[in-house]
Amino acid sequence: MNVLVIGNGGREHAVIKALKKSPKVNKLYAMKGNAGIGADAELVNVDYMDAKAVCDWLDTHTDVEYTVVTPDDPLAMGLVDELEKRGHRAFGPRKNAAIIEASKAFSKNLMKKYGIPTAAYEIFDDAQKALDYIATAPVPLVLKADGLALGKGVLICKTREEAVQGVQEIMLDQKFGSAGNTLVVEEFLEGPEVSVLSFTDGKTIVPMITSCDHKRALDNDQGLNTGGMGTFSPAPFFGEKTAKEVLEKIMLPTVAAMNAEGRPFKGVLYFGLMKTKDGMKVIEYNSRFGDPETQVVLPMLKTDLMEIFQAVTDERLSDVNVEWDTGACVCLVLASGGYPEKYEKGKEITVGELDEGVTLYHAGTAMKDGKLVTSGGRVLGVVAKGETIEDARQKVYENAQKIHFEGMYYRSDIGIKYRNEKRE
Ligand code: AMP
Ligand code: GLY
Q1: Residue ranges of domains in the chain
Q2: How far apart are CA 177 and CA 149, in angstroms?
């Protein structure tokens, strides 16, 4: 079968490399992809936010039988709905289910209505009312723009002054555009965080192996929030008891809640969770594979990814036995100097000979005059598996030394955190 994957990043590269291993997959296309993806799939230069253009391309490429929609914005826009209307098979939630990520107000209200544990919150459409609330609310406070904001629409405010400034930025200055028309003000929670991605066909939910992201730019979780500077899998503190709690109190109730709301979710449902003193709580939902979580999760998958995708589409996921490796995996992101703020593009990248078993997932790369150059803030993900996280971590850092571009920087502490947390 020939398959089209929508998206441009390291996550899409990981999906493509996993699909390449499937005996069911013949040829892969990527819309629009990047330089690294170009070595694994045929690149298609069509704007995937233009649903008509995507459908038109598929109509003229009748060899493509299946489309995987990976990023949040085409899902939120309803690309899967449009593809289905035009008779194309696709992986990913429809628009009315993708709202679980696209509107934080929706997801908070869903959790409240169905008793799914999350931080206490208030929702405001009016900046003055938000300011009045903040004047007496306990700090720290968390402010979240309702809509999609490239993972940057969340502000942790230690003081009331910071919260007032935050309301100004999100609601009045519209720093994240219309995503900030509605504001969620949330209780500040503390504890280790874990990403639990899952496959679901709306009936069955199958958790993937766990992973932990590093959102801040600098070591020891200092610096600005980014799209993610590295990941490791599995989360050391996530044992059987926690897995059971998450499945029973969070995952199954979320699938049931979406069905009860007439919004059945089919695709990858991502649970961003925190282990608090009162148990596991939901920090966020995403309607898709995480980036860079996917880069450590999919290399651990033993089952054929294409088989899982098709089973989700056909609502027979309960028939598939999804299996995972027992070891560990680490992804280190190599970023452009200045990211997540201003950075230069077009820097030539040189890659030495990497050790066997080390994979390079491309994110912000392009080909220019026959040379590999940077084209984004997060440029490459160096990924290795090992028997333990420490083992995988060593391989990743050794191999990162063989890659160079002007201004390249990375965190030196990926894979260390939570190693002393109790596993339960
Ligand atoms: P989100 O985009 O919702 O995942 O938020 C980004 C990051 O902000 C999360 O990964 C957490 O580290 C942090 N965060 C979000 N909500 C809270 C909260 N209620 N309490 C503490 N930290 C939070
Ligand atoms: N790594 C967080 C996300 O994909 O949203």
Answers
A1: 2-95, 126-181, 193-319, 328-404
A2: 8
pLDDT for 111 equals 98
Longest dimension (CA), the chain: 61
Choose one of 293, 298, 361 to mutate for the ligand 2 pocket test, by most ligand atoms within 8 angstroms of C-beta.
Answer: 293
Q: What is the pLDDT of residue 163?
A: 95
- Ligand 2 midpoint to CA 289 (Å): 8
Nearest ligand atom owner, CA of 152: 1
Which fold, 126-181? Answer: Dna Ligase; domain 1 (3.30.1490)
What atom of ligand 1 comes closest to residue 186's alpha carbon?
19
The pLDDT score that the predictor gives to residue 338 is 97
Which two tokens mark 343? 């950075």
Q: Kindly state which CATH superfamily the domain 328-404 is placed in.
A: Phosphoribosylglycinamide synthetase, C-terminal domain (3.90.600.10)
Assign domain 193-319 to its CATH architecture.
Answer: 2-Layer Sandwich (3.30)
Quick one: 190 exposed, middle or buried, by C-beta within 10 A (0-12, 13-18, 19+)?
exposed
Measured by CA distance, the residue closest to atom 3 of ligand 2 is 290
Q: Which of 152-166, 262-276, 289-303, 341-355 has the lowest mean pLDDT?
A: 152-166
Ligand nearest to the CA of 195: 2
* Distance separating alpha carbons of residues 176 and 251, to the nearest angstrom: 29
Picking from 287, 145, 285, 291, the residue whose alpha carbon sits closest to that of residue 215 is 291
CA of 104 relative to ligand 1 center, distance in Å: 12
**Which fold is adopted by the domain 2-95?**
Rossmann fold (3.40.50)
Q: Which two tokens stand for residue 59?
A: 């109509």
pTM value > 0.90:
yes
Per-residue pLDDT tens for 244-254?
999 999 999 99
Q: Which residue lies with its CA nearest to atom 11 of ligand 1? A: 283
Average pLDDT for residues 309-336, to the nearest whole number?
98
Split at pLDDT 50, 70, 90, the class of 401 is: very high
